[in-house]
Amino acid sequence: GAVVSQHPSWVICKSGTSVKIECRSLDFQATTMFWYRQFPKQSLMLMATSNEGSKATYEQGVEKDKFLINHASLTLSTLTVTSAHPEDSSFYICSARWAQQGYNEQFFGPGTRLTVL
Amino acid sequence: GEDVEQSLFLSVREGDSSVINCTYTDSSSTYLYWYKQEPGAGLQLLTYIFSNMDMKQDQRLTVLLNKKDKHLSLRIADTQTGDSAIYFCAERENSGYALNFGKGTSLLVTP
Q1: Is the pLDDT of residue B109 over 60?
Q2: Residue A93, by phi and psi: left (phi above 0), alpha (psi -120 to 50) or beta?
């Protein structure tokens, strides 16, 4: 089946530093990846849509300069949280869209827990 | 995005059936999904249903869709303690591929 990995699975950083989270589709090519954010006991909120080779599309209210997204290849998208603050602490989940031969589905990564001290 | 609503909590006894309900507002939704999330983990796709279907059954899972009322339900037969998790209902926007999630229903299965 289609597998999506995220790295790291958890990270603790100091306020003011930047953190990069990787999302990889391991056995399929994903032209589109999505980044979600989940607060404790809350739903997943879409942050941005990442398209390979082009700029990401950010949802309303998401600061594009703070959450930098790069989708350099068909199997890798990265989310960089710049100048992290404690309020950025959250569970970040990516998904990758697999579209092939009429099959169109999203597969989710296991998530990255970010704690900013 | 459009709203997806779920009840927040459900408790059932082991062996009973669980029914988790969801309502959505976007009448143009093409796919509706049920995901399971265990503590500290990502999302596991359980099942999905096309908007032109009324029912879908997959082993212990039965999904019912009432498109007129925009109501989706997930029935888990013979619920086990391992089914304890948060269940998210999600709809896919007709204009794209991103998913719009409900807040999740926390299912607790007691022995």
Answers
A1: yes
A2: beta
pLDDT value, residue B2: 60
Interval B45-61: pLDDT, tens: 899 998 888 999 999 99
Per the CB < 8 Å rule, is B1 touching A93?
A: no
Annotate B76-102 with three-state secondary structure.
ECCCCHHHCEEEEEEEECCCCCCEEEC
**A52 touches A69 (CB < 8 A):** no
Mark yes or no for CB contact B98/A93 under 8 Å. Answer: no
Considering only residues B89 and B92, tell me which one the structure prediction assigns the higher pLDDT.
B89
Contacts of A105 in chain B (CB under 8 A): 45
Query: Strand B61-66's sheet: what is its strand order?
Result: B4-6, B18-24, B71-76, B61-66, B55-58
Q: Above 70 in pLDDT, residue A102?
A: no
Out of A43, A97, A113, closest to residue B101 by CB: A43
CB B33 within 8 A of CB B45: yes
Q: Which residues on chain A are in Cβ contact (under 8 Å) with B100?
A: 46
CB contact under 8 A, A34 and B35: no
What pLDDT is attached to residue A101? 60
The four Cα atoms B22, B73, B40, A42 give a dihedral, to 10 degrees, of: 0
Q: Specify the 3-state DSSP secondary structure of B30.
A: coil
